[in-house]
Automatic annotation (TrEMBL):
Functions in the N-end rule pathway of protein degradation where it conjugates Leu, Phe and, less efficiently, Met from aminoacyl-tRNAs to the N-termini of proteins containing an N-terminal arginine or lysine. HAMAP family: Leu_Phe_trans. It comes from Ideonella margarita. Keywords: Acyltransferase, Cytoplasm, Transferase. The keyword Disulfide bond does not apply. This is Leucyl/phenylalanyl-tRNA--protein transferase.
Length: 255
């Protein structure tokens, strides 16, 4: 099969035409087309995302199956629950939304990962997602200790769907704290699923599970056009939706 090459105006091909499980790149759909805000929003609305290495063209993917985290199934393991309770009681420990988006995505790109010699978050991708953030589409959830950014994640919010992209931790469990805060936020705003794109054992341990591309696309069709959160902001009271007292952080820490 010849991979479709997109120009700036070319539409995406049907997702069913993506390379199948017997290929060298299962889920690969097309190449090219650039990373404009409109192109990226259109892609995510259809369950398509860019993923490529430095020196490659933009590559677009729609894997089958797709890894999703139903927020109702999030596994708050006993150890993480204790970590969260201690974090929320400790002065100087904060969760923030959207206060340092570029720092978060830069940290995701530059934090070494076991078994990964490089990163797919190339400079062109960083600039593109910063533009998405400026357009109110991409968001960060951040873990801070004594004024230091120690962990976090970033992703997209479209309607009542959240698309997780990457996370990092410079302190133990710092990214898990951010993910738990995102899950609590989603529960508070009737967002049922977080897209995790591809399977990892870590995500599976937290409740994520694979679903077929067909089922995923049906969920997108039903949710991305719905009214989303009026504002992406941290609210300490959301922790109660995970069964955790909010502690002293009762006010929003978002700008």
């Amino acid at each position: 099969m010849k991979l479709p090459w997109l120009d700036e105006l070319a539409p995406f091909p049907p997702s069913a035409s993506a390379l199948g499980p017997g290929s060298d790149a299962p889920g690969l759909l097309a190449a090219g087309g650039g990373l404009s805000v409109d192109r990226l929003v259109n892609a995510y609305r259809r369950g398509i995302f860019p993923w490529y290495a430095d020196g490659q063209p933009v590559l677009w993917w729609t894997p089958d199956p797709r890894m999703l985290l139903p927020v109702a199934d999030f596994r708050l393991h006993r150890s993480l629950r204790k970590t969260l309770q201690r974090f929320l009681r400790t002065p100087g420990c904060e969760v923030r939304f959207d206060s340092a988006f570029r720092r978060v995505i830069d940290a995701c790109a530059n934090t070494p990962r076991l078994g990964q010699p490089g990163t797919w978050i190339v400079p062109e991708m960083v600039d593109a997602y910063v533009r998405l953030h400026e357009a109110g589409v991409a968001h960060s959830v951040e873990t801070w200790i004594d004024g230091e950014l120690v962990g976090g994640l970033y992703g997209l919010g479209l309607g009542r769907m959240v698309f997780g992209e990457s996370m990092f931790a410079h302190r133990t469990d710092a990214s898990k704290i951010a993910l738990a805060a995102l899950v609590a936020f989603c529960r508070a705003h009737q967002i049922e699923q977080i897209d995790c794109q591809q399977h990892t054992g870590h995500l599976a341990s937290l409740g994520a599970a694979p679903v077929s591309r067909t089922r995923f696309e049906a969920h997108l069709a039903a949710t991305v056009a719905l009214p989303g959160p009026a504002r992406w902001a941290y609210d300490a009271e959301d922790w109660t939706l995970l069964g955790i007292p909010p502690g002293p952080q009762v006010a929003s820490l978002s700008p």
